[in-house]
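Example complex used in Figure S2.
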Amino acid sequence: MRSSLFRLRTLGAAGCVAALAAVAACSSGGTSTGSSGSSSNSGTVTVAVVSNPLITSQMIPLTSSSFQKQYPGIQVKFATYTEGDLRAAIQKDVSTHSNTFNVIMIGPYEAPLFAKNGWLTDLSAQYIAKDPSYGAGDLLPSIAKALSYKGDLYAVPFYGESSMLFYRKDLFRQAGLTMPAHPTWAQVQNFAARLNQPGKTSGICLRGLAGWGDNMAALDTVVNTFGGQWFDMNWKPQLTSPAFENATSFYVNLVRKYGEPGASNDSFNQLLTLYGQGKCAMWYDATVAATSIATTYPSVYAQTGYAFAPVNLTKSSGWLWTWALGIPQGTSNSGAAWKFVSWATSKQYDQLVAAKYGWSAVPPGTRTSLYDTPQYQQAAKAFAPITIASIDSTDPNHPTVNPVPYVGIQYVDIPQFESLGLTVAQQIAGAIAGTESVSQALQAGQSAASQYTPAQLSGG
Amino acid sequence: MTAVPLRALRAREPGSRRLREVSGKVGWTVLAWVVAIAFFLPVLWMVLTAFKPESAAETWPPRFTFSPTLAEFRLVFSGWGPYVTHSVIATIGSTILVLLLGVPAAYALSVHPVGRWRDGLFFFISTKMLPIVAAIGPLYVIALKTHLLDSIWVLIILYTAMNLPLAIWMIRSFMLEVPSELLEAAELDGAGRIREITGVILPVISPGLVSTALICVIFAWNELFLALNLTVTNAATMPMYLISSVPQEGLYIAHLSAAATVASVPVIIVGWIAQRSLVRGLAMGAIK
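Predicted assembly (748 residues):
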């Protein structure tokens, strides 16, 4: 009985192994990594992208209507994610060398870190040097620099942004106020106090949602221009320094006194809705919001004025971000992947978008030539000059008053920042919601930052 | 203390009891309606929002009058093709496997229990006690090494594993409901194990099987975590389409509502078709 039972179990186990092997064999051809074609004009290209109207409403339809007609042998598949899911999926893919993706959408936070780890293809050496028609010299210098490692580009920009202040010209006129082109935060606070009408219009709308790309993006620019910094030159955390605390208290008080109700739940999308519905006299956010206001809320767009990111001790304070395309190291079909990357970030792509969606819808902030195009100058005359001037004025190597050991304006370009930034962001959201004081929030942030040694933080 | 004549009390009792019964019934009815409306309102709001233009989707105070548009549905139908196909394959495939494996397993744990059946039963359910997030790292590596990453097979296998313990417990409870006289009669007629299952047990527990299958369908259809971590494009499912509708910079409430409405329809249809069996099946298990 025992031996027959043993035989039965052995047979069952063998059957399971055989079934798994068969399933594995059946499925191996189904993955994109196994797709054939070493020629640059054929093969499957799987692209991981962030969910963004410039991508879902423009890039994806144009890929099937234009790129795949131009290169019928290349099949492009898109995997669209929210920002957090995209980061997790890409990190997992490149760090395990799964090579599920042939093209990944990353930002200036990831590009130098991934390049340092050997996870990305050196685009300058592999492709751009051999393809002068790509026109890499036309890329905006600050954006190109943010995506480079040791002078070589490891990702090329699809669109770029800084931050600026949007304001309602009609409300300013009615209140007899004038917004300067380069306002200070003190002036902005004064305007917010004058224009704030509780229950009707908030004096200013600011990000409060916890996230290093959400509330911390806006707050970091305030911290920088108040002279604060995340770490000193010895990588000692500075979150409880007077400058950091002053800046954070200023931001939290501003949003609590004159900001939108429930600000700790708000980031770009919620603020776009509030501003578009006329519930914000001012809004400090990404320059790309100008395109969203123009396309979604035309009547408010007609009354919108633009000013540079407010400052305190520095000359400029806008952040710098770009969503860019890179090719993971060792991926299959890398030639076809570059064909797609170079097409989606080319001058010709801008022409395609303009022809189908209009010049004001062209992805901004990547190429100088776009800002020299008369049609674009005309279509985006209200916000194009300030967008490019804001991007040009950024310097991620010198984000604040004093020298810092890190790179990054609204982030610190170290692997630990993904977790540390979120921890501090949650504390700040708590301070904005009123569940804790600013000093308690920063003390908790300081403790979180102090868990890392200077050697860990510096990568030494 | 005042003495109340017993006769007088008896005379009053039927009226006051009836009053209590009526008011109790009304109370329960009102409570049931309040709970039902509380559950239904968000769904109604989702469907209404799906017909709004994006700029009118999120307003305060909420807007009930608007010019309806099908623009967001058109957008959903232009992009949902591969996602819904993968969802259907993974859901149906895994549910069939669950039933094929669950019925014999439940039989061996109920009608003719194997040795240490109680341990087996608790082992099955104990697999549900481990948070799936704790297993995702090893699962990812296994899927990578067996070339199952981004394949529909990985979802079919994992959804089967995910639903099997629950199905075994449910089917077992239905099998325990089968009258022993029926089974004895079948044995006397010379029916073997297979015949006993197919000829006697399955017809009796078919409403229970339908409700088990429906629950497996719902769980597999709505599953996001495994799909998000183990698939990319070749097996991406409807819940992944839903979350890809949330942009990082842009409005999305109307589009997300349209996508969520569309994603809910198949489950509602299956539930509606199986409604009678579902109620009978669930009541069957509940008695035990």
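Chain B touches chain A at residues 54-55, 58-59, 140-141, 144, 146-154, 157, 228-229, 232-234, 236, 243-252 (CB under 8 Å). The first helix of chain B runs from residue 6 to 50.
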